[in-house]
Design goal:
It is built from 14 helices and 17 strands. By secondary structure, the chain is α+β, with helices and mostly antiparallel strands. Strands 2-1-4-5-6-7 form a 6-stranded antiparallel beta sheet. Strands 15-16-3-17 form a 4-stranded mixed beta sheet, with helices on both faces. Helix 8 runs antiparallel to helix 12.
């Protein structure tokens, strides 16, 4: 892209309306500070994109000395990379529009001349690239470098490395990110396995218990047999103390039935009989004359009720008597049994039964304790056995995970190397655009040759890191990088260099249009096309500065 001229300027910063400038292969904008050199240099970029020299599009561009709303307008004539001439006009203010060859168009349509806005700004203004964050610089350079196909890149590796990857990688960055994620996930899984191994190891290291044997089963059987024989050959064999308690209990109940409950029932029955005898004398009063009236129906109803009550009480008395007779009979049997149990023979049997029962219970408890202990031992031994099996499984799992981690690490290592080789291959294809500048996209240990930082970004000029350069050398490095971006991206934009007086020489390809802004003290704004004329202006400026210095010295003297 070649810019022939800028014209039709209205209300743009400090420039006068109608200002026009023609541009040559090399155009010099000279003048003292504040003479609008940078303003003129920013115009082509604003007309083409609406952005300023440092990537902003919100800047106030209207001349603040003009009262009232007025659009900012500027036009320029360019020759595109196909050799076709175009006129582009931009207006900002009340009327915002862009014209391409006199026809309204969109910013998107203008991108056919330059592609990406920030790539264009980097190519047009060398200082802009260095104003960007380093990660953005790196991304932009990698974006504009010529593409190396995945198949061609794959061939940069040796046979063993190709075998590790298996096939060409289309997106090395995405592949490396995926492998890092896999390694992280596998390490997380490995941590979980190691945690489980610790749990199962603690269990597996426990000492297995030994099952106990109950050795007194024969003795227990003999005691139970003896006990059964005594019990089966003796009727109603009970403790004499228990019998005594039962007899006493029956006596208390018999006494209660006879002396309390039976007496209360008889008294209640007597009262009901008296009521029955006196029921015939029941009378009621007439509500009118108040005379006594004999109520036959009421008398009959009361008789029936009293008779029923007497009969119920009589029935309960008989039931209580029957119950008492049964208890008396039972008490008699228990007294007889008590007398039998008091005999020395029965007492001896009872003593024997108690002794046998105590021994049986003791042995039975011992047997139950052993059975419970053995159950616990079986559970414990099963847990230990299961823990040992689990440890074997986890050991195999650990080996598999470690194997997979090592595989991913090798793939990541080779993919990282491939990425670096691809960048070197890309940089090799554009080496003709760089002279003293070198750009490294990884940091390598100079001793071992190993990659320290695969995502590093180091710019050097004549072997020295950019950050250690002087202002002049930094600008030289910026110009080389701008030239690289300009040519590799295919934009072929003119290059604007501001404050160029800080460097003594500039190298550009012959096909690059250059706009140079030079500060010359005491000089008004001028547009020159010959460096000889620039030198003449600088000479006059220097002479005037010397003259002023001499005058100051004379005054001081």
């Amino acid at each position: 892209m070649y810019i022939k001229n800028i014209f039709n300027i209205q209300n743009y910063k400090g420039l006068s309306d109608g200002f026009k400038v023609d541009l040559d292969d090399i155009t010099y904008l000279i003048g003292d500070n504040g003479k609008s050199k940078t303003t003129i240099g920013s115009l082509p970029l604003w007309i083409m994109t609406g952005y300023n020299l440092y990537g902003g599009n919100k800047e106030q561009i209207g001349n603040d000395s003009i009262i009232g709303n007025k659009d900012s307008v500027a036009s320029m004539t360019i020759i595109d990379n196909d050799g076709t001439e175009h006129t582009i006009t931009r207006s900002k203010g009340k009327n915002n529009f862009v014209l391409l060859d006199g026809i309204r168009t969109t910013q998107e349509m203008l991108t056919k001349f330059y592609g990406d806005i920030h790539t264009l700004i980097c190519a047009y203004n060398p200082r802009y690239f260095r104003s960007m964050a380093e990660i953005k610089q790196r991304e932009l350079l990698l974006r504009v470098l010529p593409v190396v196909s995945s198949e061609d890149a794959f061939q940069l590796l040796d046979n063993a490395e190709r075998e590790v990857l298996g096939q060409p990688i289309v997106d090395t960055k995405g592949y490396c990110q995926a492998q890092r994620a896999n390694i992280k996930e596998l390490n997380s899984e490995l941590d979980k396995v190691e945690g489980s191994k610790k749990v199962y190891t603690d269990i597996a290291l426990k000492e297995e218990g030994v099952v106990k044997e109950f050795t007194k089963q024969e003795e227990l059987n003999q005691l139970e047999k003896q006990y059964e024989q005594i019990i089966s050959n003796t009727d109603n064999l009970v403790h004499i103390e228990d019998l005594q308690q039962e007899i006493n209990k029956l006596e208390r109940k018999i006494n209660e039935n006879v002396n309390i409950e039976l007496k209360e029932l008889k008294e209640k029955q007597q009262k009901e009989l008296e009521k029955l005898e006196n029921v015939s004398s029941v009378k009621s009063n007439c509500p009118v004359c108040k005379q006594k009236i004999k109520n036959e129906k009421m008398i009959e109803a009361l008789k029936t009720s009293y008779k029923n009550s007497v009969n119920d009480i009589a029935k309960k008395i008989e039931e209580l008597k029957e119950e008492t007779r049964e208890m008396i009979a039972k008490r008699s049997l228990q007294i007889e049994q008590y007398k039998r149990m008091k005999s020395p023979e029965m007492q001896e049997k009872m003593k024997k039964v108690d002794e046998l029962k105590a021994k049986i219970e003791l042995l039975q408890k011992e047997k139950n304790d052993i059975n419970l202990y053995n159950k616990e031992i079986c559970v414990k031994n099963a847990e230990i056995s299961n823990a040992k099996k689990k440890l074997e499984e986890l050991k195999r799992a650990t080996e598999e995970i470690n194997k997979e981690i090592e595989k991913c690490k090798k793939q990541l290592q080779v993919a990282t190397k491939l990425s670096i080789l691809m960048i070197k291959e890309q940089m090799g294809k554009v080496s003709q655009y760089l002279n003293k500048v070198t750009i490294e996209f990884c940091e390598v240990d100079e001793r071992t040759g190993e990659i320290i930082d695969e995502s590093a970004y180091i710019v050097k000029y004549d072997g020295r890191r950019y950050e250690k350069l002087s202002t002049a050398y930094k600008l030289k490095a910026d110009i080389e990088i701008a030239n690289l971006i300009n040519k590799v991206s295919g934009i072929n934009t003119p290059v604007f260099i501001d404050e160029v007086e800080s460097i003594t020489e500039i190298e550009f390809k012959e096909d690059t249009q250059v706009i140079l802004a030079i500060v010359i003290k005491y000089n008004q704004l001028e547009v020159l096309y010959s460096y000889d004329k620039v030198l003449q202006k600088e000479k006059k400026s220097i002479e005037r500065q010397i003259e002023e210095s001499n005058n100051l010295l004379q005054i001081a003297a």
